[in-house]
């Protein structure tokens, strides 16, 4: 008990609270602006932590991480452009709800469930860090590949009209990610001898392009033809969710939290996969009158809960094994190492105080971020009062700045514009854009894991079907595809009958 | 008002004319120096601390800018294309040789003027304690007796850890399959028993060695590595004369004036000798070790020859 009390005193010293507040706002801003990510925010803030004492440094890193993981929602819901790839699944229903005048309710709801998801993952982390770290160890290349295939199967649920169109989108996404240096042999593919093409297409740049540019083009053409719909400022009222409303989603929140925490703990996966898996899981279970994809709050709750539950999950291998599971946690690990804190199995024995303060600061970060967001809702919804073509202009500027800043490369700005217009044309051809994003996110990881597994087994494919874990995920994927094909055929038959 | 503006412009012009006339460039730096960083992970973090320290030493900002991708090709190409005035420098490493011989950049290390070596990182060979191997010789004998190639985890094919592993196992005469993992995953793969051994930077193994689940058999450099755990060099452990060390340092485009190089070199020296920098770097598994421009240049050239030879043996050379 003494140790807890002394940790509490250290964890809430004035400079630590200051670091928490600063980190939360910094992360939130980076998360909210499309093209700026919390990975970037962490890289920028890392040098600032050198001079702080270690508790304040941990506070700043964790709050930036958590602020960034929460901020992406705002842009996804209000303008339909995800601030980070992990909030892309939120766009589908979130933006529809905002258009229907429920912007503030949706943002506030997303904030509340994000916090619940994050705190849930913290509790899981506290009680089962050893167990989940050993589960994570069990995931080798073959198992991760199977999990990614399962992730890919969610395309079925995202394809709005037909599975075929969804698959076309997914394949386009996979193809785009082939450009550049291959991840295993370092051979250059489709670069035509051009050095800038060696770096390949950056996921974030492609994401901004796909989601923002078609919207910008649409806004300008509507303005030009005079068909612009102006939102009446009076209809945008500030409304926060009541506890009873949140309670109505309790099972959705529970399932999505659990899913996010587990996915987060597996190295090589990310919040994006968790968000899409949670979305497709809840879509299947949905019994509301409003279908997913047409403005169902459940379609916001699921991805937002699970992508924040990933934050606690991804800290599990960092603390338990000293192994980062993505670039963001790699930066956090670097920050801990600089201060002489070596995460790993012994940290729990030798330095429990550090572990306790990490837990407390993690929880405090979530509470602070939630307070900021709930107060901010009033400000955020003001963005809806701005005429669409002016908002589009602002989005355009942010897109250019964002795509440059990812890798400090003008080449990426060009890529963004080209992909953006291709995205516009694809949207006109009624190819859904979300499956393209899924292809972009999963493609490089799938290739890397598949090829590593094959190298490991000396080109023997049995590595994929002798692992029970891999088989389990392949089976999940097969069930999803089968069910969707079946329901697709049924609805077609019904249409025929009606006709 | 107009005349003051004209005056100001004239003074500015005059000033720049004087600046052009005198090759001494006495007031370098007049604007921020941009330091291009090629990789993420600890390379990026050490680069940021270095930029921080050099800003203080120069009294003018040194800005770390990330240009990752292509195994370093993107960043090297960027800096190679900038003016040779010292305002654009690169946080380089042996990767200048690997990326050149892979055929991804048309120029080699001669396109850059060395400024200073900042320090080095030495890979280690690690195995799971479950394997029962406690030293290099017993591992080599067991592997040969098994008859099957040993599965060895490295960062990526053609990466520095791959080259170090190839040099080591070539000396031991052990057959090996290289499994290309990302840098951070080596301990997990060892603990789970999916690979027999891994060649990686020592930092990530330390907590597991202390927990008695992983053992570090040897380090690939000639000198012992400075960590709290006693690890013999591979040279001592049976791979005679093995000496593979990754250095990191700073370079500017070839043709950068000598006095500018000297100023940057002095700022780098002051930073490396600072206790705070040294401690932070060591915590990240990076051993600070300053070398002035001339000696650094010789090191780059001699390592380039070694890497060229290694990559030819491995069949990784495209140049």
Question: What can you tell me about this protein's structure?
Answer:
The complex is a heterodimer of chains A (499) and B (319). Chain A has 499 residues and is an all-alpha fold. Chain A has helices at residues 2-11, 14-32, 38-49, 54-78, 88-137, 141-153, 155-158, 163-176, 203-225, 243-247, 250-265, 271-285, 298-321, 327-338, 347-350, 352-380, 388-407, 410-428, 434-456, 462-465, 468-498, and strands at residues 180-181, 188-189. A two-stranded antiparallel ribbon of chain A has the order 1-2. Chain B is of the alpha/beta class. Chain B: Residues 1-26 form the signal peptide. Chain B: Keywords: Signal. Chain B: This is ABC transporter substrate-binding protein.
* Main β sheet profile of chain A: 2 strands, antiparallel
Mean pLDDT across the residues of chain A is 88
CATH class value of the largest domain in chain B = Alpha Beta
Q: How many strand segments of chain B?
A: 11
Termini gap of chain B: 61 Å
Helix content of chain A: over 70%
What is the CATH topology classification name of the largest domain in chain B?
A: D-Maltodextrin-Binding Protein, domain 2
Per the principal axes of the C-alpha atoms, what is the gross shape of chain A? globular
Percent strand of chain A: under 5%
The CATH superfamily of the largest domain in chain B is: Bordetella uptake gene, domain 1
Form type of chain B? globular
Order of helices and strands of chain B: HEHEHEHEEHEHEHEHEHEHHEH
- Kindly provide the radius of gyration of chain B, computed on alpha-carbon positions and rounded to a whole number of angstroms: 22 Å
- Unreliable residue runs of chain B: 1-5, 7-25
Distance between the termini of chain A: 72 Å
**Residue share in β-strands of chain B:** 15-25%
- With strands numbered from the N-terminus, the spatial order across the biggest sheet of chain A is 1-2
Oligomer: heterodimer
């Amino acid at each position: 008990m003494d140790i807890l009390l002394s940790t509490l005193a250290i964890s809430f010293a004035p400079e630590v609270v200051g670091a928490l507040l600063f980190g939360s706002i910094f992360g939130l801003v980076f998360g909210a602006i499309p093209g700026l990510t919390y990975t970037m925010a962490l890289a920028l803030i890392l040098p600032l932590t050198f001079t702080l004492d270690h508790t304040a440094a941990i506070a700043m890193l964790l709050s930036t991480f958590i602020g960034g993981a929460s901020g992406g929602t705002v842009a996804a819901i209000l303008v339909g452009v995800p601030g980070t790839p992990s909030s892309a699944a939120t766009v589908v229903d979130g933006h529809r709800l905002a258009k229907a005048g429920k912007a503030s309710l949706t943002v506030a709801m997303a904030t509340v469930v994000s916090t619940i998801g994050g705190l849930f993952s913290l509790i899981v982390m506290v009680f089962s860090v050893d167990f989940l770290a050993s589960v994570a160890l069990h995931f080798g290349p073959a198992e991760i590949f199977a999990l990614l295939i399962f992730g890919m199967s969610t395309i079925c649920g995202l394809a709005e009209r037909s599975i075929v169109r969804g698959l076309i989108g997914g394949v386009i996404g996979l193809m785009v990610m082939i450009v550049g240096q291959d991840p295993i042999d370092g051979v250059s593919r489709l670069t035509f001898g051009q050095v800038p093409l060696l770096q390949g297409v950056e996921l974030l740049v492609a994401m901004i392009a796909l989601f923002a540019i078609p919207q910008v083009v649409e806004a300008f053409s509507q303005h030009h033809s005079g068909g612009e719909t102006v939102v009446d400022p009076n209809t945008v009222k500030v409304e926060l969710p009541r506890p009873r409303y949140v309670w109505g989603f309790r099972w959705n929140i529970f399932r999505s939290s659990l899913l996010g925490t587990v996915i987060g703990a597996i190295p090589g996966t990310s919040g994006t996969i968790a968000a899409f898996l949670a979305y497709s899981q809840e879509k299947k279970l949905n019994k509301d009158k409003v279908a997913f994809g047409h403005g169902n709050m459940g379609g916001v709750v699921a991805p937002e809960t699970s992508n924040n539950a990933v934050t606690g999950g991804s800290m599990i291998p960092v603390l338990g094994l000293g192994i980062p599971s993505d670039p963001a946690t790699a930066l956090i690990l670097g920050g801990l190492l600089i201060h002489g804190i070596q995460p790993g199995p012994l940290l729990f024995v030798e330095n429990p105080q550090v572990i306790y303060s990490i837990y407390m600061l993690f929880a405090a970060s979530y509470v602070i971020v939630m307070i900021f967001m709930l107060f901010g809702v009033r400000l955020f919804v003001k963005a809806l009062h701005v005429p669409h073509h002016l908002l589009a202009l602002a989005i355009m500027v942010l897109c250019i700045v964002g795509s440059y800043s990812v890798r400090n490369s003008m080449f990426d700005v060009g890529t963004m514009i080209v992909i953006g217009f291709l995205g516009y044309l694809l949207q006109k051809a009624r190819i859904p854009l979300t499956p393209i994003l899924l292809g972009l996110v999963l493609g490089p990881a799938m290739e890397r894991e598949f090829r590593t597994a094959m190298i490991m087994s000396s080109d023997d494919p049995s590595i994929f079907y002798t692992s029970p874990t891999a088989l389990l995920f392949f089976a999940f994927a097969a069930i999803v595809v089968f069910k969707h094909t079946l329901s697709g055929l049924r609805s077609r038959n019904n249409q025929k009958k009606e006709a | 008002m107009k005349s003051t503006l004209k005056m100001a412009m004239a003074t500015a012009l005059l000033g720049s004319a004087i600046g052009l006339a005198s090759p001494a460039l006495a007031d370098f730096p007049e604007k921020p120096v941009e330091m291009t960083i090629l990789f993420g992970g600890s390379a990026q973090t050490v680069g940021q601390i270095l930029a921080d320290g050099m800003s203080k030493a120069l009294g003018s900002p040194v800005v770390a800018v990330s240009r990752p991708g292509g195994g370093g090709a993107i960043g090297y190409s960027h800096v190679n294309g900038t003016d040779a005035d010292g305002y654009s420098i690169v946080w380089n490493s042996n990767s200048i040789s690997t990326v050149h011989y892979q055929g991804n950049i048309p120029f080699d290390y001669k396109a850059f003027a060395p400024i200073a070596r900042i320090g080095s990182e030495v890979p280690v060979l690690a195995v799971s304690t479950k394997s029962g191997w406690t030293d290099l010789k017993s591992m080599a004998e067991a592997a040969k007796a098994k008859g099957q190639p040993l599965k060895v985890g490295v960062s990526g094919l053609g990466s520095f850890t791959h080259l170090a592993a190839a040099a080591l196992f070539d000396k031991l005469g052990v057959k090996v399959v290289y499994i290309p993992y990302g840098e951070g995953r080596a301990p997990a793969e060892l603990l789970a028993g999916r690979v027999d051994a891994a060649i990686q930077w020592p930092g990530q193994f330390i907590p597991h060695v202390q927990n008695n689940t992983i053992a570090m058999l040897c380090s690939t450099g000639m000198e012992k590595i400075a960590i709290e755990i006693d690890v013999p060099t591979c040279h001592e452990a049976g791979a005679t004369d093995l000496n593979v060390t990754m250095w990191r340092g700073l370079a500017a485009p070839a043709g950068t004036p000598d006095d500018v190089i000297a100023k940057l070199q002095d700022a780098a020296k002051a930073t490396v000798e600072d206790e705070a920098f040294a401690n932070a770097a060591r915590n990240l598994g990076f051993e600070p070790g300053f070398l002035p421009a001339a000696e650094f240049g010789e090191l780059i050239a001699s390592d380039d020859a070694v890497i060229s030879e290694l990559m030819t043996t491995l069949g990784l050379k495209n140049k």
